[in-house]
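WARN no homologs supplied; continuing
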Amino acid sequence: MIEPFRNYLTSKAAFTAAELEQMEAGATVKKLKRRDFLLRQGDVCRDMAFVVSGSLRLYRTDEQAQEHILRFAIENWWITDAESFRTGLPAKGAIDALEDTQVLLWSRETFERLKREVPAFNALESQLAGRNLDAQINRLYTSISHSAEERYEEFITAFPDFYQRIPLHMIASYLGVSRETLSRIRKQAGLH
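OK structure emitted
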């Protein structure tokens, strides 16, 4: 379970053996079955999660009980409700498993301590936070400036691994289109 995380870290930065052990020692292993919650809307998000295997989604539910998917995460991706994790306030979103999933979890206190004590991890986390912000800005721009067809094409180009594993109705939610619209787009593209 720890080996994929170790491989991920060493592919991103130079960590000493002691630093790797320190980071691994702070992790808790959690296994989720499909549809199990890692975080329920309204609970405080207390953990940062690294996906070892499986897939998760972060989503919010509106007043009409419609789900709006904000993010997916598969192997070697991090996921949390960032606002709740940072502030300690109740989560506006929920995180659940789309398939059987294994994650490593770090409490906020442990995660912050590791950033202070392991310079390479702090640099990696800063880099990932910057890339995440860039991705969010690009997604916002795409959602307000591109057609549904263009958003779909960009999604399957950017996330081919997601496209094969995520149910189409969830991709539609992520793209901000109806299932019917996504079906029409797929039919026009010859992707029945």
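Residues 51 and 75 are 5 Å apart (CA to CA).
OK
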